[in-house]
Amino acid sequence: MWAWTSVNVMTTNLLDFDLDGLAAFCERLGEKRFRATQLFRWIHQRGASDFDQMSDLAKSLREKLRGCAHVAGLQAISEHVSADGTVKWLFDVGDGNAVETVFIPEDDRGTLCISSQAGCAVGCRFCSTGHQGFSRNLTTGEILAQLWYAEHALRQRRGDGERVISNVVMMGMGEPLQNYAALVPALRVMLDDHGYGLSRRRVTVSTSGVVPMMDRLAQDCPVALAVSLHAPNDVLRDNLVPLNRKYPLHELLAACRRYLDHAPRDFITFEYCMLEGVNDQPEHARQLIDLVGRKAADGGVSCKFNLIPFNPFPASGLRRSPPAAVTAFAQLLSDAGIVTTVRKTRGDDIDAACGQLAGDVKDRTRVNECMAKLRTIEIKPVI
């Protein structure tokens, strides 16, 4: 039902619509909104792609849909299963590009990590995706197709018809907020009770700090927010996360405080990739405490930290922080009253761990030249 099939590209892919968009599409066909709701449920809750299967739709509507619409996911080029149960798919998105999607099973949840772009233009030094460059944004349908495929494929394997995916994190390939127009309708489908019915607290958008879009997301579709911080000062973050040169830390933290007025959680999650001798020294921890640990009125942010073990790849020139350094760093933050967790690496044996997603990208950004310039900048540890 949910499998990829070839289709007439001149017809409309219904995965590109949230419920309001699908209702408008059906209205143009002379149909009422409740028909769109029925169709929406068939697609997202049951994984149906064949209109003839949608037995409670009027025969006349099914005939109309066959002539002007289709439901088509992405072709899975490969699937790899880790020893820890993590599953990674490589999906073909055309023109020589492919994106990766990862399912992470845990005892109390099932999390799907979804890509938003073929490649990424931000170019963070520690991220494999950024070293591949950027080709294009994914469509709403291509974002949702990853969830649609994974949910119904896993549900069929398990055989009990129960929901498998309880959490979605927009932490795959790409910077989600640089693909805002496609992202927001996809989020709405994830949250819609007629779609996947996920709680706002269980859908997380991760951003490297696109400040204007953080403000828009707070108004349009506030979900949980994770910010890729990775450095406690502008000099270091300029090198690790080049977007910092456009939106420096004081602007980023102000946007975080504004977002909290609308967020479903009362904290922002800061992601911090631990890099040996680069950002993992005690002085860096003390700078972070000074940066975010103050009261909001004094410039602080209600937050928690995820310390992420760096997952090495050949082009990075970086090394993973030793466990002892990570433990000491976490203890300093915790002693200052900041909730801190050390993320457990999952799926690294199939290159599915944080920072390892790469897919196949036809780069349009001359990323190799940019990364070479970054690697010539020496990053010295704080003494």
Describe the 3D structure.
With 383 residues, this protein is α/β, with parallel strands linked by helices. It folds into two domains: 12-70, DNA polymerase, domain 1 (Orthogonal Bundle), CATH 1.10.150; 75-375, Alpha-Beta Barrel (TIM Barrel). The protein is built from twelve helices and 14 strands. The strands form three sheets. The chain has a ten-stranded mixed β-sheet. A two-stranded parallel ribbon has the order 1-2. Strands 7-8 form a two-stranded antiparallel ribbon.
Which helices and strands appear, and what pairs or packs with what?
Layout lengths: L11 E2 L5 H10 L4 H12 L14 H10 E2 L4 E7 L5 E8 L2 E10 L2 E5 L3 E3 L8 H5 L1 E4 L2 H19 L8 E4 L9 H12 L11 E5 L3 H10 L3 E5 L5 H7 L8 H12 L7 E7 L7 H11 L10 E7 L13 H13 L3 E4 L24 H9 L8
Parallel strand pairs: 1-2, 6-9, 9-10, 10-11, 11-12, 12-13, 13-14
Antiparallel strand pairs: 3-4, 4-5, 5-6, 7-8
